[in-house]
């Protein structure tokens, strides 16, 4: 837990540096953009969740998110398979308390208890990441942004939070590997425009606002290529 807290502090400091470099007011850090508290009770709720019950709940989700949480590329829905349980749990809670907007998901989340959400999140975390997408060229720009960032724009590497292989991290950082590229692009653009605002301390809004639309497209293809081989 100590190492996780230290990494979180390090990542937050990196984002503060980006904010200052972009000339964004520090008042953007006045409050967190989620009501989820990662206390022992919440961590234990996820730790001891019932994945079999989560699988039953997931049957309702399959029409949009696909069997076992792998969405098809024909639709602009996210794949949930292989997502860290904390990441899925946070998003469901954000929908439930209206911190994140989406009519269908908000309505669905209101029917779930915290235990239901934990069960569902753990079930999806036990599935394999989506299959790697092929056919698109992975650019050097995307690789550089993902692995090294951009010092001139004070952009940290995506890997700092999302992992070297896009696998996500503990607490609430989602996996990006194998993600539906059209969904990746849509979400990054909502962060960039500020229409999605449930990222803690504006982290993703700050980063997305510094990226061009072309860079976002290239990152989408890069992370789609990192799925399960």
What features would you describe in this structure?
- The protein has 11 helices and no strands.
- 40% of the residues are buried.
- The model is unreliable at 1-31 (pLDDT under 50).
- The chain folds into 2 domains: 40-125, Cytochrome Bc1 Complex, Chain D, domain 2 (Orthogonal Bundle), CATH 1.10.760.10; 132-224, Cytochrome Bc1 Complex, Chain D, domain 2.
- By secondary structure, it is an all-alpha fold.
- It has helices spanning 2-22, 40-47, 51-65, 85-96, 103-109, 114-125, 140-147, 159-162, 181-193, 203-209, 213-224.
Secondary-structure map:
Blueprint: H1 2-22, H2 40-47, H3 51-65, H4 85-96, H5 103-109, H6 114-125, H7 140-147, H8 159-162, H9 181-193, H10 203-209, H11 213-224
Helix content: 40-55%
> What is the number of helices?
11
Say which CATH homologous superfamily of the largest domain is assigned.
Cytochrome c-like domain
Whole-number count of domains = 2
**Mass-distribution shape:** globular
SSE string, helices as H and strands as E: HHHHHHHHHHH
Helix/strand class = mainly alpha
So, CATH architecture of the largest domain? Answer: Orthogonal Bundle
- What is the strand tally? 0
Largest sheet, in brief, is: none
Distance between the termini: 31 Å
The residue-averaged pLDDT reads: 88
Low-confidence stretches: 1-31
- Radius of gyration equals 17 Å
**Which strand-content bin applies to the residues?**
under 5%
CATH topology type of the largest domain: Cytochrome Bc1 Complex, Chain D, domain 2
The CATH class assignment of the largest domain is Mainly Alpha
């Amino acid at each position: 837990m100590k190492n996780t807290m230290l990494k979180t502090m390090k990542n937050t400091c990196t984002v503060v540096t980006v904010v200052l470099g972009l000339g964004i007011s520090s008042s953007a850090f006045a409050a967190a953009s989620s009501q989820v508290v990662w206390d022992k009770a919440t961590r234990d709720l996820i730790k001891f969740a019932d994945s079999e019950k989560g699988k039953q709940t997931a049957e309702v989700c399959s029409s949009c998110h696909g069997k076992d949480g792998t969405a098809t590329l024909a639709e602009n829905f996210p794949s949930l398979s292989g997502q860290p349980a904390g990441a899925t749990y946070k998003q469901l809670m954000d929908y439930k308390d209206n911190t994140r907007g989406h009519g269908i998901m908000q309505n669905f989340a209101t029917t779930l208890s915290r235990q239901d959400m934990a069960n569902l999140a753990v079930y999806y975390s036990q599935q394999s990441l989506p299959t790697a997408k092929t056919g698109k060229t992975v650019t050097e720009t995307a690789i550089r942004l993902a692995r090294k960032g951009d010092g001139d724009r004070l952009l940290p590497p995506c890997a700092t939070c999302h992992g070297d292989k896009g696998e996500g991290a503990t607490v609430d950082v989602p996996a990006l590997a194998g993600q539906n590229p059209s969904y990746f692009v849509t979400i990054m653009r909502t962060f960039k425009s500020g229409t999605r605002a449930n990222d803690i301390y504006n982290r993703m809004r700050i980063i997305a606002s510094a990226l061009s639309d072309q860079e976002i497209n290239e990152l989408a293809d890069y992370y789609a290529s990192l799925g399960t081989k």
